[in-house]
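It would be a great kindness if you could assist me with a short task in structural biology. Thank you for your consideration; the sequence and its tokens are set out here.
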Amino acid sequence: MPLRINVELKNGAVCLMGKKSFNVFLSLDKVAKFKRSKGWIVVGKGPQRDSEKDSDYNFFVERRALF
């Protein structure tokens, strides 16, 4: 089963997201907080990982280069 992350968006919606979706929403500054095993992490206040280091999805890849 793929990893799903509990996420609270800035508009108040709470949902489960896959890792790639979470990274996209995080980069768009739409995430208010998310849940880790030790509790909820508030974006901008809690400890976060380096998104460049931990991401397996390149947001700015040239689409034509993939084919």
